[in-house]
Predict the 3D structure of the following.
Amino acid sequence: MTYFNLICIIAVTIAILFFAAKKKGNIDIPKFIGTILSQLILSFLLISFIHFILKKDFDLLCVLSIYLSFAIWIVFYFNFIQNHTIDSIGEKKLLLFITPSIPILFFPGILLNNTVAVNLIRMAIMTSIGVLNNYIVYKYFYQNLSTNKLDKFPTIITIPEKSKTQSVLYEPQKNKRDLILNFLLIIMPIVMIFALIQSSKEVYFNVEDDRIYGYVELPADSNFEYTDEIVQKIESKLVANPNVKDVISQVEPSHAFLIINYHKSFFSSDSIIPSLNQSVGRQNPAFCYFTKESDLGRMKEVSLDIVGQSHSDLNKSVPKIANLITNLPGIHEVILNFKQPRNELQLDLNNRDPLLQNSEIGSFLRTVVQGSVISKYNENNNELDIRVRASKEFRDSEKQLNKFLIKNNSGEFSSIGSSFTQRETLSPIKFFRKNKRPNLSISVRTDSYNPNTLLKLVQNYSQTLLNNNERIELNHRIEKLSKSNTNFTVYIILILLTCFFFFIIYTESLKTSFIYFCSLLFFYCIFASIYLIIFKTYDIGFHIGSVIVLISLLLHILSNFPEIKRQNTIPININWDFYLVAIALFLPLLILSTPELNVFKKVFGLFMISLILSRFLLIHFNFRFANVFEKVLSTNNISKISGGKNVRR
């Protein structure tokens, strides 16, 4: 269904490009559509062939790499080829510079998640191959078939038509505006780092996972029959839901795992899990919850530890606290990270009959209650156990035990009830300790609170439920989260420094590279801060989209800023063809994609927003102090060479 959705989206995209080219009128439609189809088909064949050689599956990351290659290609085409910013040799030089930059910018992601980073580097390499393929197809298919031979010599156009360009004078003097921009250049990275630390981190993905997982938890003493009965009720309610296609169950005593396949519509829908929760309702004493992520997705939970003096007290207070948290606003689910103690009937033997051994009492009770296998029976190569135990009417409650008579060594029968005293107790499944103190843990699934805020909220509401010497604190996972904040900060710094080194390599000028980098840093910090403050999540979509935005910014800056330097003018004209092509390529994906393509939607949504914001926030910074600094350096060097003597200048 996912790949069918992609095929439909590509068909709609090509149709939109066809009608847009037809309406514009001055485009050779067969060559235009033929070039796009050639680029698309050859990219698909190349990437498929490479994956075949490497014995890798062709997955949705390969499709994403094809889309990304077109995103970078249109930025490159409209900034350099169409505007004739550089000659043919310069185009090839820049292309060979940009294509390795894509996987290199994804390489620092190893700090965050090794598995994800390896897959993203593979995707980035395929993207680079796609960009090179698009350029080669354009140069040797579109231009060679062009009737206008001047297309082969773009360098003969040296001055653009004045009617197509509107410019404003760029004044290199230091003014109040420059001081404000310099101040913002210092403040915005701080704001971005703060927003990054406050955001939740979800750098994982499973773009082809179109199933929902359900977890059913029952008390620890629930036997298989009772668990299966509860699960069958849940299954019947799920199957009655019109959105559900089928349900696959794995049932164990006190636990069940469900896989729900659902009917996917052509348009995106995020209401499937609330629909399932509504269908199932409450299944006391069972606890049932659903998620669209795999086990890795469950790491989004905020874990809280309740530390006390005894496990028996904690086993009473923690479930009450969990029920209280469930009713708080913004809390989706509360999961007990432990099995509650089993209810146990303890028999203390006080047998005074010398003709009756305690071991015989134990064997007798085991036989009448649980049953003993006395023989086996073979039927059609199937082996069946023959088990003997008391009838069900004598096993309904512990009171029935007094009705049993046991035979002693002299052949007399006596009531077994006089041989023991019984009492109900709790038998814990596992003991948990934290710093040598009893501890139980719960996990809270929420999208409204960060860990510290949630901890204060739970502490305030649960004061009356906590016993003396009991407290609530964050789980050790939060310590890992603080470490991950450091890793994310280091990752952002690394990719930004990588962009700075790219500028140095390409321009071969430290001063020019610094000016370019400041413009890129200013835009990216504003862009990232706005996203992280609004959505409060650093997810895989933003992780991929950030790199594509940085590559796009590199190309925009290298295209536009040299003109500012040469002409002292800032071009403010808008290339509408560029935006129309970008909208035609990616708008169908944003509108028509199914939930399984949410990563695609987020990546190209960020790309489209960055294209718009770049018209207003990509600013050329003026650092005149750099010339003074160079002059001072040159003067000091001359003084050192002369040995301190006066030198005529």
Summary: The radius of gyration is 35 Å. The chain has a mean pLDDT of 76. The domain at 209-297 is CATH 3.30.70.1430 (Alpha-Beta Plaits). The longest strand covers residues 437-446.
